[in-house]
Amino acid sequence: MQQLEFELTKEFRDRFQEALDQRDQTFIVEALEHVKAADISALLYEFNSEESKYVMGLLSLGTQAEIVRDLDSDTRANFLKIYESNEIAGIMNQMDSDDAADILNELPIKIREEVLSILDIELRIQVTELLRYEENVAGGLMAKELIKVRVNWTVVQCVEEIRKQAENVTKFYTVYVVDEFDKLLGRVSLKEIMIADARKTVAEILEQDIVYVGTYLEDTEVADMMRRYDLESIPVVNVQGQLVGRITIDDIVDVITEQAEEERQIMSGISENVEEDDSVWRNTRARLPWLLIGIGGGLINAKFMGLFEMELQRVTALAFFVPLIQATGGNVGIQSSSLIVQSLANPGFVVEGLWPRLSKVFLVAIMNGFFLSILVFGANYLLFNERSLSLIVSIALFSVVIFASFIGTITPLILNKLGFNPALASGPFITTTNDLLGLTLYFFTVHLLL
User: Fold this and answer.
1) Residue 248's beta-bridge partner residues?
2) Looking at the domain assignment, is residue 223 inside a domain?
3) Tens digit of pLDDT for each residue in 221-274?
4) I need a labelling partner for 400 at 20 to 30 A (CA). Which of 38, 112, 249, 314 fits?
5) Beta-carbon contacts of residue 228 (< 8 Å; ≥ 6 apart)
6) What global pTM score does this model have?
7) What pLDDT digit, counting tens, does each position of 83-98 carry?
8) Is 108 a domain residue?
9) Are residues 54 and 130 in the same domain?
């Protein structure tokens, strides 16, 4: 039966709540019969833990495992508090080893030990090995479930072994080839196995050119490799070159999503990984540091403007253009830094070189500065009918655009070189910096030309 697209409406939610209150098992089971596990997870966010557990109890263990896996970590940790250790173990027995290890790491130590002791022995061995690795390295990402064959087997032996191993593997994209010491030698495609002469050995149809990663490699580097080579899975080897697991595309999608979320928060001036439903104190603590930096920059700007009090007294209209200068400089800086941050994620950035890119940024800044300056000159001349003032503001704006483009380009490169996240340069950091330096350049230009 094909699973239909699920839409959570207020009417369905209210009817489902009514069924929960009445413990109407028939309605609940029929309503969720053809709904995907991910959609059931979204539905259960609408109810409390006890109600959600009641619904889970009416579903198969396989579906329960998918739902628990799909929950975000904070919700899952709170939800599993109402489960007994044997109930958690029963659900985890339906998961791949990498998912089970991730969830175990979220549990309190006592519960973790109890659940681990109850798991099926094969899964327990696999999970125990995975728990040795940090979460942000290939060893912590990989799953132990995979299909492997010996290099000296015949194609017939290979097919028989694949059938046996496939019972414990949910999805597999390729068959890995190892020697008698489990050292990774290459891979062989299922198509090649199906069309090969049954008397041939695996060594004769082996593809040795294979991309793999070590257990110690950071998750972001693994994601870059899989994205670069367009891989659906990648084998993981230990320091001896032995095949110990594989990483699939669904695990990498999670890494890329988390990385994008982290960079988005950094660019927004949020210093911690927080969500809207986190505590007030945690949200305040995450947002306050960059707001304080912005306040500091504003106070410095105010003090700096006082140094040009004489110029402002002579031509008070100069103050009218301060917001224009700051806004334009901030926008130009963010545009430049955002493009550079995006380029740094592309391996071609290194190949193309730095100077050609800087030259291109400089030319773009000249063109933007020219058009903006002409526009501002015309608008100012119409509004104030003062040619000299319009010319001064236009020259200052042109200079600020050039300078802001340079700062927005060079800042993420410096941060990246120093080992910091270059996304820092795309948020309040670059805005505050450009406000201060742009204002300096504006008044310096005014001082020279007035």
Assistant:
1) 233
2) yes
3) 999 899 888 888 999 999 999 999 999 888 888 888 777 777 666 655 555 565
4) 314
5) 347
6) 0.67
7) 999 999 999 999 999 9
8) yes
9) yes
